[in-house]
Amino acid sequence: MNRKNKTAKLKTVLIVLLVCLFCGVKSRASETPGRPLPVTPEDKLHFILSQLKKADAQLTSFVADFKETRIFLYSPEPEVAEGKIYFKKPGQVRWDYYPPGEKHIVLTPTKGWLYLPEIKQVQLINLKGERKLSSLPIGLSGPAPDFEKNYHIRLIEEEGETTEEKRYILELTPVSGSEVAAVYTRLLLSLSERRWLPADRIELLEVAGDKSIIELSGISLNTKLSSKLFKFDVPKDVEIIDHTPKQPPSET
Predict the structure, then answer these.
(1) What are phi and psi of 160, to 5 degrees?
(2) How far apart are CA 247 and CA 83, in angstroms?
(3) Alpha carbon distance 152, 170 (integer Å)
(4) How far apart are the first and last CA of the chain?
(5) DSSP label at residue 249
(6) Secondary structure (3-state) at 12
(7) How far is CA 34 from the centre of its chain?
(8) What is the pTM of this model?
(9) Of 219, 227, 231, whose CA–CA distance to 59 is shortest?
Protein backbone atom coordinates (compact mmCIF):
# COMPACT_ATOMS: atom_id res chain seq x y z
CA MET A 1 0.00 0.00 0.00
CA ASN A 2 1.43 3.40 -0.96
CA ARG A 3 1.83 6.24 1.53
CA LYS A 4 -1.27 8.09 0.32
CA ASN A 5 -3.53 5.06 0.73
CA LYS A 6 -1.95 4.21 4.08
CA THR A 7 -2.60 7.75 5.34
CA ALA A 8 -6.21 7.66 4.13
CA LYS A 9 -6.70 4.29 5.80
CA LEU A 10 -5.25 5.60 9.08
CA LYS A 11 -7.54 8.62 8.99
CA THR A 12 -10.61 6.43 8.43
CA VAL A 13 -9.73 4.01 11.22
CA LEU A 14 -8.70 6.73 13.66
CA ILE A 15 -11.82 8.84 13.18
CA VAL A 16 -14.08 5.83 13.63
CA LEU A 17 -12.29 4.65 16.76
CA LEU A 18 -12.17 8.11 18.29
CA VAL A 19 -15.89 8.58 17.82
CA CYS A 20 -16.32 5.39 19.81
CA LEU A 21 -13.64 6.44 22.27
CA PHE A 22 -15.90 8.02 24.84
CA CYS A 23 -19.29 6.70 23.80
CA GLY A 24 -20.37 4.83 26.88
CA VAL A 25 -23.03 5.05 29.53
CA LYS A 26 -23.17 7.34 32.51
CA SER A 27 -20.81 6.02 35.15
CA ARG A 28 -22.02 5.08 38.61
CA ALA A 29 -19.48 7.41 40.17
CA SER A 30 -20.96 10.41 38.38
CA GLU A 31 -24.43 9.54 39.66
CA THR A 32 -23.46 10.09 43.30
CA PRO A 33 -25.41 13.19 44.46
CA GLY A 34 -23.24 16.09 45.53
CA ARG A 35 -19.94 14.36 44.74
CA PRO A 36 -17.32 17.13 44.59
CA LEU A 37 -14.98 17.24 41.61
CA PRO A 38 -11.27 17.23 42.64
CA VAL A 39 -9.74 20.70 42.92
CA THR A 40 -6.30 20.54 41.26
CA PRO A 41 -6.00 20.16 37.46
CA GLU A 42 -4.17 16.86 37.90
CA ASP A 43 -6.86 15.48 40.18
CA LYS A 44 -9.60 16.70 37.85
CA LEU A 45 -7.99 14.97 34.87
CA HIS A 46 -7.51 11.73 36.79
CA PHE A 47 -11.15 11.82 37.90
CA ILE A 48 -12.44 12.45 34.38
CA LEU A 49 -10.35 9.66 32.86
CA SER A 50 -11.50 7.22 35.53
CA GLN A 51 -15.14 8.00 34.72
CA LEU A 52 -14.54 7.51 31.01
CA LYS A 53 -12.90 4.12 31.51
CA LYS A 54 -15.70 2.94 33.78
CA ALA A 55 -18.28 4.07 31.26
CA ASP A 56 -16.51 2.33 28.38
CA ALA A 57 -16.61 -0.93 30.34
CA GLN A 58 -20.41 -0.66 30.53
CA LEU A 59 -20.95 0.03 26.85
CA THR A 60 -22.32 -2.73 24.58
CA SER A 61 -23.61 -0.76 21.59
CA PHE A 62 -24.94 2.57 20.39
CA VAL A 63 -26.66 4.28 17.48
CA ALA A 64 -26.25 7.99 16.75
CA ASP A 65 -26.62 10.67 14.10
CA PHE A 66 -23.37 12.37 13.15
CA LYS A 67 -22.22 15.53 11.44
CA GLU A 68 -18.67 15.60 10.09
CA THR A 69 -17.16 18.93 9.05
CA ARG A 70 -13.88 19.10 7.14
CA ILE A 71 -12.11 22.47 7.18
CA PHE A 72 -9.28 22.81 4.69
CA LEU A 73 -6.28 25.09 5.12
CA TYR A 74 -6.37 26.43 1.57
CA SER A 75 -10.10 26.40 0.91
CA PRO A 76 -12.69 28.86 2.27
CA GLU A 77 -15.52 26.35 1.93
CA PRO A 78 -15.86 23.58 4.53
CA GLU A 79 -17.03 20.13 3.51
CA VAL A 80 -19.98 18.89 5.56
CA ALA A 81 -21.37 15.35 5.67
CA GLU A 82 -24.14 13.82 7.76
CA GLY A 83 -25.29 10.31 8.45
CA LYS A 84 -25.77 7.60 11.04
CA ILE A 85 -23.26 5.49 12.95
CA TYR A 86 -23.79 2.06 14.51
CA PHE A 87 -21.40 0.51 17.02
CA LYS A 88 -21.47 -2.92 18.65
CA LYS A 89 -18.86 -4.68 20.75
CA PRO A 90 -16.60 -6.37 20.01
CA GLY A 91 -15.11 -4.12 17.36
CA GLN A 92 -17.98 -3.59 14.92
CA VAL A 93 -18.73 -0.18 13.43
CA ARG A 94 -20.86 1.00 10.53
CA TRP A 95 -21.02 4.53 9.12
CA ASP A 96 -23.76 5.40 6.61
CA TYR A 97 -23.16 8.78 4.95
CA TYR A 98 -26.22 10.38 3.39
CA PRO A 99 -26.25 11.83 -0.18
CA PRO A 100 -24.70 13.88 -1.60
CA GLY A 101 -21.37 12.15 -1.22
CA GLU A 102 -23.01 8.91 -0.14
CA LYS A 103 -20.65 6.28 1.21
CA HIS A 104 -20.72 3.39 3.63
CA ILE A 105 -17.95 2.21 5.96
CA VAL A 106 -18.18 -1.16 7.70
CA LEU A 107 -15.43 -2.21 10.11
CA THR A 108 -14.85 -5.40 12.09
CA PRO A 109 -11.87 -6.25 14.31
CA THR A 110 -10.02 -7.77 11.33
CA LYS A 111 -11.23 -6.11 8.13
CA GLY A 112 -13.20 -3.24 6.69
CA TRP A 113 -15.06 -2.10 3.60
CA LEU A 114 -15.44 1.38 2.12
CA TYR A 115 -18.27 1.48 -0.42
CA LEU A 116 -18.61 4.46 -2.77
CA PRO A 117 -21.85 3.87 -4.71
CA GLU A 118 -21.54 7.01 -6.86
CA ILE A 119 -18.42 5.65 -8.56
CA LYS A 120 -19.30 1.98 -8.01
CA GLN A 121 -16.17 1.21 -6.02
CA VAL A 122 -15.46 -0.92 -2.95
CA GLN A 123 -12.18 -0.68 -1.04
CA LEU A 124 -11.14 -3.60 1.14
CA ILE A 125 -9.08 -2.71 4.24
CA ASN A 126 -7.08 -4.99 6.49
CA LEU A 127 -7.56 -4.09 10.16
CA LYS A 128 -5.97 -7.10 11.78
CA GLY A 129 -3.43 -5.81 14.27
CA GLU A 130 -4.50 -2.18 13.86
CA ARG A 131 -4.43 -1.75 17.63
CA LYS A 132 -0.76 -0.96 16.99
CA LEU A 133 -1.87 2.40 15.58
CA SER A 134 -0.44 4.20 18.58
CA SER A 135 -2.57 1.94 20.79
CA LEU A 136 -5.65 3.99 20.02
CA PRO A 137 -7.46 5.15 23.14
CA ILE A 138 -10.02 2.64 24.37
CA GLY A 139 -10.34 0.30 21.44
CA LEU A 140 -13.47 -1.34 20.14
CA SER A 141 -12.97 -4.77 21.63
CA GLY A 142 -11.53 -6.14 24.82
CA PRO A 143 -10.36 -4.05 27.77
CA ALA A 144 -9.32 -0.45 27.29
CA PRO A 145 -5.55 -0.05 26.85
CA ASP A 146 -3.61 2.41 28.96
CA PHE A 147 -3.98 5.21 26.44
CA GLU A 148 -2.32 7.73 28.76
CA LYS A 149 0.97 6.14 27.67
CA ASN A 150 0.26 6.87 24.00
CA TYR A 151 -1.10 10.40 24.28
CA HIS A 152 -0.13 13.44 26.30
CA ILE A 153 -3.50 14.35 27.85
CA ARG A 154 -4.36 17.75 29.23
CA LEU A 155 -7.51 19.38 30.59
CA ILE A 156 -7.41 22.67 28.69
CA GLU A 157 -10.79 24.23 29.35
CA GLU A 158 -13.82 24.05 31.60
CA GLU A 159 -16.91 26.19 31.62
CA GLY A 160 -20.25 26.46 33.39
CA GLU A 161 -21.10 26.64 37.07
CA THR A 162 -23.72 23.94 37.66
CA THR A 163 -23.64 20.22 36.95
CA GLU A 164 -26.22 20.74 34.19
CA GLU A 165 -23.99 23.12 32.22
CA LYS A 166 -20.44 22.18 33.27
CA ARG A 167 -18.25 21.13 30.34
CA TYR A 168 -14.64 20.03 29.90
CA ILE A 169 -12.33 19.92 26.89
CA LEU A 170 -9.50 17.40 26.85
CA GLU A 171 -6.50 17.79 24.57
CA LEU A 172 -4.80 14.60 23.38
CA THR A 173 -1.40 14.98 21.73
CA PRO A 174 -0.09 11.79 20.09
CA VAL A 175 3.29 10.60 21.32
CA SER A 176 6.07 11.66 18.97
CA GLY A 177 7.08 9.02 16.45
CA SER A 178 3.75 7.19 16.40
CA GLU A 179 1.74 6.57 13.21
CA VAL A 180 -1.03 8.78 14.55
CA ALA A 181 1.44 11.63 15.17
CA ALA A 182 2.40 11.48 11.49
CA VAL A 183 -1.17 12.52 10.59
CA TYR A 184 -2.54 14.46 13.58
CA THR A 185 -1.00 17.11 15.83
CA ARG A 186 -3.71 16.96 18.47
CA LEU A 187 -7.26 15.85 19.24
CA LEU A 188 -9.83 17.85 21.23
CA LEU A 189 -12.66 16.08 23.06
CA SER A 190 -15.65 17.91 24.54
CA LEU A 191 -17.35 16.31 27.56
CA SER A 192 -20.38 17.23 29.65
CA GLU A 193 -20.37 16.73 33.42
CA ARG A 194 -24.14 16.33 33.29
CA ARG A 195 -23.75 12.95 31.63
CA TRP A 196 -19.98 12.61 31.13
CA LEU A 197 -20.46 10.39 28.13
CA PRO A 198 -20.51 10.27 25.21
CA ALA A 199 -18.25 13.09 24.05
CA ASP A 200 -20.50 15.10 21.76
CA ARG A 201 -17.74 16.87 19.84
CA ILE A 202 -14.38 15.58 18.61
CA GLU A 203 -11.92 17.82 16.79
CA LEU A 204 -8.95 16.37 14.90
CA LEU A 205 -6.17 18.72 13.79
CA GLU A 206 -3.96 17.39 11.02
CA VAL A 207 -0.26 17.95 10.45
CA ALA A 208 -1.08 19.40 7.02
CA GLY A 209 -3.25 22.09 8.63
CA ASP A 210 -6.69 20.67 7.79
CA LYS A 211 -9.22 19.95 10.52
CA SER A 212 -12.10 17.50 11.06
CA ILE A 213 -14.94 18.07 13.52
CA ILE A 214 -17.31 15.22 14.41
CA GLU A 215 -20.50 15.92 16.35
CA LEU A 216 -22.90 13.26 17.63
CA SER A 217 -26.60 13.71 18.40
CA GLY A 218 -29.68 11.57 18.97
CA ILE A 219 -27.58 8.95 20.73
CA SER A 220 -29.23 5.69 21.78
CA LEU A 221 -27.04 3.61 24.11
CA ASN A 222 -26.88 -0.17 24.49
CA THR A 223 -29.39 -0.76 21.72
CA LYS A 224 -29.88 -4.27 20.38
CA LEU A 225 -28.28 -4.31 16.93
CA SER A 226 -28.44 -7.08 14.35
CA SER A 227 -25.11 -8.61 13.33
CA LYS A 228 -26.26 -8.19 9.71
CA LEU A 229 -25.49 -4.47 10.01
CA PHE A 230 -21.80 -5.31 10.17
CA LYS A 231 -21.71 -7.84 7.33
CA PHE A 232 -20.97 -6.29 3.97
CA ASP A 233 -22.02 -8.01 0.76
CA VAL A 234 -20.08 -6.60 -2.18
CA PRO A 235 -22.55 -5.38 -4.84
CA LYS A 236 -22.34 -6.64 -8.40
CA ASP A 237 -20.62 -4.61 -11.11
CA VAL A 238 -18.35 -2.62 -8.80
CA GLU A 239 -14.62 -1.99 -8.95
CA ILE A 240 -12.83 -3.67 -6.05
CA ILE A 241 -9.62 -2.15 -4.70
CA ASP A 242 -7.96 -4.55 -2.32
CA HIS A 243 -5.66 -2.98 0.30
CA THR A 244 -5.32 -6.22 2.26
CA PRO A 245 -1.82 -7.77 2.34
CA LYS A 246 -1.25 -10.54 -0.14
CA GLN A 247 -0.04 -13.90 1.07
CA PRO A 248 3.39 -14.80 -0.36
CA PRO A 249 3.34 -17.84 -2.64
CA SER A 250 4.11 -21.06 -0.82
CA GLU A 251 7.33 -22.83 -1.63
CA THR A 252 7.01 -26.30 -3.02
Answers:
(1) 95, 155
(2) 36
(3) 10
(4) 27
(5) P
(6) helix
(7) 32
(8) 0.78
(9) 219
* Biggest alpha carbon–alpha carbon distance for the chain: 72
Cβ 196 vs Cβ 47: under 8 Å: no
Question: Cα–Cα distance between 164 and 192 in angstroms, integer?
Answer: 8
Q: Among residues 15, 30, 13, 17, which one has the least CA distance to residue 197?
A: 30
| CA gap 151, 101 in Å, rounded | 33
3-197+212-242: CATH class: mainly beta
3 state DSSP class of 139: coil
Q: Using one digit for the tens of pLDDT, what is the confidence trace for 129-138?
A: 654 443 333 3
Rounded Cα gap, residues 15 and 8, in angstroms: 11
pLDDT digit string (tens) for 225-252? 999 999 999 999 999 999 877 665 555 5
- The single-letter code of the amino acid at 172 is L
Report the phi/psi class of residue 166: left, alpha or beta, with left for phi > 0 and alpha for psi in -120 to 50.
beta
Distance of alpha carbon 120 from alpha carbon 237, whole angstroms: 7
How many Cβ atoms are within 10 Å of 41's Cβ, its own excluded? 12
Mean model confidence pLDDT for the chain: 78
C-beta separation of 39 from 200 below 8 A: no
d(CA 210, CA 78): 10
- CA 10 to the chain's CA centroid: 11
Q: Give every CB contact of residue 6 below 8 A, 6+ residues apart in sequence.
A: none
pLDDT, residue 151, reads: 84
User: Which residues of the chain have a pLDDT value below 70?
Assistant: 1-38, 129-148, 161-164, 194-195, 197-198, 246-252
CB 107 within 8 A of CB 16: yes
What distance in Å separates the CA atoms of residue 250 and residue 44, rounded to the nearest whole number? Answer: 56
